[in-house]
């Protein structure tokens, strides 16, 4: 059976055993550290830690391959857009200009621009493993309880949980519908040309939408019959207790965040500049 995209992957690993609250807090701190800094040394250190955590989680690269490819395509488009709209951004930030070669007009390739866009790319590679790990190692119900514990209304948290649960359901429904259509002679394989495949795939969209709306109605009716939302608070069956390991990991996360901020802003700028003598 094909691996479901962004669905919970059950493994026996140290990352899976952590509380959902711990993973959420660490992810938020990790994202904050990577967004605040443009210090290449800090980003590279965080990137190495991300790879180590991904390895410890025992999640296979093939299980998140589709999402990685999608993000990498977006990353390439983002880098192209940055250069097209601001080809001298690196020069403006670092205050020097080392031209490798000219293209046309204001478009030239400089070491500063390459270094700036390298840092942008490195930011993606820092956050992507952390985000994927958080998504695939945290059960949707545990994720909802984590949101509720940090102050998010439980109705919103439960809605997020349902959305995450429904992602693999949509994928299974789509495969079922596409297999049914292929049995009727509609070709969705690579043997068909691209535009014909897009047209054939689009034929599965409407049945998928109708089945999704029916499922939403069934779930909403069931929740209403059970009195969901009547009380101001609720308990969570899937919530994990906050143990010593969780305290230790959160403490380490705080130390990493604090160290990243101190290293980044110690000279008054969040950009590490290798083009001038410090």
TrEMBL record:
Keyword Transmembrane helix: yes
Keyword RNA-binding: no
Keywords: Membrane, Transmembrane, Transmembrane helix
Cellular localization per UniProt: Membrane
Pfam families noted in UniProt: CbiQ
Topology relative to the membrane: Multi-pass membrane protein
Superkingdom in the source lineage: Bacteria
InterPro entries, sorted: ABC/ECF_trnsptr_transmembrane (IPR003339)
Positions of transmembrane segments: 24-54, 66-85, 114-136, 247-265
Protein's name according to its UniProt entry: Energy-coupling factor transporter transmembrane component T
Protein species of origin: Metabacillus fastidiosus
């Amino acid at each position: 059976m094909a691996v479901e995209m962004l669905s919970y992957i059950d493994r026996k690993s140290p990352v899976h055993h952590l509380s959902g609250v711990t993973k959420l807090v660490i992810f938020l701190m990790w994202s904050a550290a990577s967004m605040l800094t443009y210090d290449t040394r800090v980003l590279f250190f965080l990137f190495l830690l991300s790879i180590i955590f991904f390895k410890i989680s025992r999640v296979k690269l093939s299980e998140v391959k589709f999402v990685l490819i999608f993000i990498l395509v977006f990353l390439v488009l983002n880098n192209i857009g940055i250069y097209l709209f601001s080809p001298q951004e690196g020069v403006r930030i670092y205050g020097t200009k080392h031209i490798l070669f000219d293209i046309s007009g204001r478009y030239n390739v400089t070491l500063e621009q390459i270094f700036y866009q390298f840092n942008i790319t490195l930011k993606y590679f820092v956050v992507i493993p952390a985000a994927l790990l958080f998504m695939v190692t945290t059960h949707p119900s545990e994720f909802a309880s984590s949101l509720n514990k940090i102050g998010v209304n439980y109705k919103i948290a439960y809605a997020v949980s349902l959305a995450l649960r429904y992602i693999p359901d949509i994928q299974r429904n789509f495969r079922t519908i596409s297999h049914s259509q292929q049995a009727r002679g509609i070709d969705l394989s690579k043997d068909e040309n691209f535009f014909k495949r897009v047209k054939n795939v689009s034929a599965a969209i409407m049945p998928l939408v109708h089945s999704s709306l029916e499922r939403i109605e069934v779930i909403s009716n069931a929740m209403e019959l059970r009195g969901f939302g009547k009380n101001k608070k609720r308990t969570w069956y899937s919530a994990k207790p906050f143990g010593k390991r969780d305290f230790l990991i959160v403490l380490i996360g705080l130390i990493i965040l604090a160290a990243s901020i101190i290293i980044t802003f110690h000279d008054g700028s969040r950009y590490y500049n290798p083009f001038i003598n410090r």
